[in-house]
Amino acid sequence: MSDSVQQIKDRLSILDVISPYVELHRAGKNFKGKSPFTAEKTPSFYVSPDRGMYYCFSTSQGGDMFTFIQAMEGVDFKGALKLLADKAGVELVAEDPKKKTERERWYAAMQDATTYYVEQLEKDKEALEYLENRGVTKATLQKWQIGFAPGPPAHGWRMVKDELETKGYTKEELFKVGLIKSTEGGKEPFDVFRDRIMFPLFDQNGKVVAFSGRILSKDSDAPKYVNSPETELYKKSELLFGYDKAKHGIRQLNFSLIVEGQFDVVMAHQAGYTNTVAMSGTALTLHHVQLLERLSDRVVLALDADRAGIAAMKKAAELMLKRGIDVKVAEMPLGADPADIIKKDANEFKQIVGKSVHVIEFLLHVLTREESDERSLKRRARTEILPFLLLLPDRIDQEHFIGVVASAIHSTTDAVRFELERLREETKAGPLSHHELADSVLKEAVEKPDIVRSARVFLEAAAEVVDAVIAVYVKDEVTKLLIEAGETEVIPESELAGVTFTLEQDFAKMPELAVKEEIVSRLNIFKTALIRRAIAEERRILKEAEEIGDETQLLTSLETMKKHEMKLKQPAYTIESLQL
């Protein structure tokens, strides 16, 4: 796979990849343009053809051509690899040809089933009338390939099975993709979907991997919705309905709109909200969140306003707030869903979305609506609202919502802040003993990566900017220190990109001597921080050896600490000693 990556980089420049998305203009050695990730008037997006990297200062993200395609197309690395391989004319040979053929047949079976369902919809007057009554246009039917699965009472139990078998698919293949299932008594397998409006579920690359079927018969005792079982192609925890069509809309509108059902998604897209997605038969998962945050760190939830909808909202918000996503809620009228509102008046839905509020404010609205007793309101706010404030990674944001909560429950900010701090302590493992406290402080000293990492990022980025002779000395010294410290982590290009572009501009304004002095200073900081971290780790090992009476380990640790302390006493780096 690494050979393929190199072949692609050999055949394509990063300008070839980015130019179709961004209008670029030369800016010295680099190129500059407006960010494709956000609406901006002043260009802050830089591309370096020499280094094969980009950086967007307005959104603080960067990397190489692969990370760019991942961000723009909402795909993972494999998806970006395939797209760029096609563009570069590079053949990817990573999968067993036999398995590849098998998987391709599964995809083909799902697409043939989709085509069959679409054809059946055109023949079924009742199904078409139902969709028309729901407000779905012909253009939307075509865009989403919505169809109809015939079944009893008007049709048989094995309609899609018989159709696909005539196309050469085996029963085993139809089982594998979840289109048919077996019955008791050894009878012939039958269709999973019968007498249902069919919504194909597409993966992020636009391939059909599953279906969701809505029952058509009003008098049926069957479940209202039936979804495909999980298969080799379909994992419900990984798929968001509509994501393949919402990627560009999310990026352009700079937020994701999450609704509950398929009708809600297609109607929202029909109304112009092309950034709308829905979960597929499951609660929001970490994988779902990761898909969305590739495109935007803002989300609006437009879920049902009943108890189940609010419970789902809380779980989704908890997952997203932890990751620094800004979560708002479009408060839906009780008993109405987006599809119904859009059918009645699309502008009304737009107003609802436009008035969306932060999830903490929404939960306060719900609480104040449910609880009339002021004391009970305050007690419930502590247990039901304050935990969400703790999830906010930004203390300034927390302080803002302390004021919001205090105002809503008629309390003081001091009281809310006090309870928040109490709650913060309660969420920890309880009071620490003297020894446990010492251990926790020691653990923080050992694991705290800020100084080491920031100095390393600076040095590795600087080595990309300075002349070749200095770069060699810097890289050699950093590598030597990392080997001595046993460090194996590789700093991602996306993290280095922004620092590299910044240093390139800063160093251009500085005298050469000042640049060398800055590099030497960071090298000294880096070396000292690594040694101090190693000493802290050895002290932890020493303490454990003392507790269990391990004399051998005790002597070894003392000797190791002595060596580290001797290193601290070594002369600091200078421009002369590094021959810069």
State the main characteristics.
DNA primase DNAg catalytic core, N-terminal domain; alpha+beta; 17 strands; five-stranded antiparallel beta sheet; 5 domains; six-stranded mixed beta sheet; 26 helices; Dna Topoisomerase Vi A Subunit, Chain: A, domain 2; 580 residues; DNA Primase, Chain A
Describe the protein's architecture and organization.
Helix 16 (359-370) packs antiparallel against helix 17, helix 22 (450-465) runs antiparallel to helix 23 (468-485) and helix 23 packs parallel to helix 25. The longest helix is centred in the last third of the chain and has 37 residues, at 512-548. The strands form 4 sheets. The chain has a 6-stranded mixed sheet, with helices on both faces. 57% of the residues lie in helices and 11% in strands. By secondary structure, it is α+β, with helices and mostly antiparallel strands. The protein folds into 5 domains: 2-88, Zinc finger, CHC2-typedomain (DNA Primase, Chain A, Alpha-Beta Complex), CATH 3.90.580; 97-227, Alpha-Beta Complex (DNA primase DNAg catalytic core, N-terminal domain), CATH 3.90.980; 240-355, Dna Topoisomerase Vi A Subunit, Chain: A, domain 2, CATH 3.40.1360.10; 362-426; 441-568, no CATH class. It starts with a helix and ends in a 12-residue tail after the last helix.
In short:
By secondary structure, the protein is α+β, with helices and mostly antiparallel strands. It has 26 helices and 17 strands.
